[in-house]
Amino acid sequence: MPLKKSELYSSIWASCDELRGGMDASQYKDYVLVLLFVKYVSDKYAGQKNPLIEVPKGGGFADMVALKGQKDIGDQMNKIIARLAEANDLKGVIDVADFNDADKLGKGKDMQDRLSNLVAIFENPSLNFTKNRAEGDDLLGDAYEYLMKHFATESGKSKGQFYTPGEVSRVMAKVIGIRDAKSATTTIYDPTCGSGSLLLKAADDASVKITIYGQEMDNATRALARMNMILHDNPEAEIQQGNTLSDPHYKEKDGRLKAFDYVVANPPFSNKNWSNGLNPFEDPYERFEDGIPPRKNGDYAFLLHFLRSMKSTAKGAIILPHGVLFRGGAEADIRRNLIRKGYIKGIIGLPANLFYGTGIPACIIVLDKENAAGRTGIFMINASQGFVKDGNKNRLRDQDLHKIVDVFTRQLETSKYARLVPIAEISDPKNDFNLNIPRYIDNSAEEDLQDIEAHLLGGIPKRDIDGLGDYWDVFPSLRKELFAKGDRDGYSQMKVEPAQVKPLIFGHKEFKDFNDKVTALFDGWQKKSRPLLTKLEVGSHPKALIEALSEDLLATFAKAPLIDTYDIYQHIMTYWNETMQDDVYMITSDGWKEAGKLRLIVEDEKNKSKEKPDLVISKQKLKADLIPPALLVARYFNKEQNEINALIAESESLAAQMEELKEEQGGEEGTLEEVVDEKGKISKGILTKRIKEIKDDPETGDERKALEDYLALIEKESETNRQVKEAQKALDEKVAAQYAKLTEEEIKTLVVDEKWLVRIAADVQSELDHISQNLNGRISELAERYTTPLPQQSQNLDELKNRVDVHLKKMGFIWD
Length: 816
What we know:
With 816 residues, this protein is α/β, with parallel strands linked by helices. Strand 16 (615-617) and strand 17 (620-624) form a beta hairpin.
């Protein structure tokens, strides 16, 4: 059956549950990732002729499966991994975790069970990487990235620095223009590469396969990077271990540092030990010609190494804390020299709390040596407000990433967001080469000023109405219908009551015309996009699809006034991440017909399903991954659903009648109080018994009628609920049978038209609703703020006080 991408992630993440308790995430990640690596290379390369990775006899995942339940499983797994490492020059890479460590994995039976369960998770038939795709649709590589992110999240402040958030990596790849790379001889280098995620994201953005170099000080983290390269189909990437500052690995024959075409880095922030093993005053690589960084802060040490590693035509991007932009002393001198040389092309200020290991705000410094000589300004972006909360961290949304890249690459000056700051302004004595972004771009919200004259004399300030100018450009006559000239210059009066503002906006011809134009834009996009969606087939590339759809949607709505095109873009990306991505991956893996089938939910070892079924037929729990049952019901069984809805409504009505009777006849002396059970509920058994007891007593006629009426309601509700249950069961059986009858064209119609496009259309409509709501909200706010001037409010207050005094006198609480 088809495997959802999200299920692939969760299945592999479940393997971590077997290891939690004995160690923290910074340790158990080594075990999980090694197993993932062994599973991948075994699936992809075992039995091949001249494979990139050799899987020797006794060195593959199948050999691990054979060990399940054996007492010496840990020791034997170590030997399997050692054989694989030996055959592929991967010693010190995949053999870093000891699978026979009793302190971490438990002793005796505990270790035996834990490792057996761990192997069983990876043995799942769905986790078959034989057909794992590259070309941007690398399922396993994406799963590895998913794991790295979660490991970084769980590893704590001091241990999560091995991973650069994927969104930030993508921004860096775009702004250095690596897509322009033309040859496999093009090089990219990361001097502090961690797990290699930043390097891979940058290299993946190139239009051709390029040559990858990296250096990482921590050996275990370097091992992660090597595995990451292989899992992302870059086995030839060179990742070296060592201290980049004191012992840089990449050097020319004459001893100079090797220079690269593109350089990216996310070095450790404010490293206090950067000069260990290094005398910066006698640096053989001439990295500190522009100044010696402070002894206890290595931010500029990494930046200067970074610059020395760039060719004269190179581009690069490095992540550093905001302090490098404005700190004084030696750092100010270095900053001044770099600005004068024109190396800094741009600075992108990022939100705080994005990075693992620190919560401080950081920036991306974009460097460009090729065009340094003629540089007259530095392009700055203040993107500090564009993010979403994600657990205990912040995260760039797709729209934030896209906006940063668009604005930077096109050098678009944008109010409160981006501008090209002249070097002359930066070097002016009042700024003195300070690069602190808020000094040049103030993105604080404009203050909503209160107008004292309007509070005293009434009227709505024309300044506030003019502040809605973007709306009046689109709805010019609407303004005239909302506001009239006031009794003095600079002020207007409302022509309608605040409660009528919203209906007037929604019903106005100009708003309707605007709505129609936006809808027409979406219809045009939908008409263009539908063939792309219906032509999906096995082997299609999901990432290429969503890029084409989303970019076209962004371009389409660039023509629409008032709408933030990046908000529209975010809607489709959110839906992609939540639902559509899984759907598309299933289709491109197994085809429309197979993906559209019902599947039987597989029970786990404890016989408890971890999934909620969509349908239960003959005690079989069934899941509809691609086509929700509700879609089939709406298309094929609307009559049956309406009948069920009517029965449900009848049942709810009966319940309401019973509740009403209970309120009328309940209470301490009420008729129904005597038939309440220990739980406080009216019992049918007690009720029936009581009716029999008073059946022949003429003095209990009213009581008997009330009890009989309630009993009749109970029985009618029970019968109605039985009918609902039977009707629902019959409908479920029809729905289950319908899945098997669906043709491929019917599946496409259900999924493309009635699932995907309907949702995206609703999201676009929500943006139209926001426009009207925002306009209505601001106008209503202004109307309520200034409708009643202060003198009138005081007069009203005096009148109310006098009325209250009159009542208090009547009640005897106030005397003359």
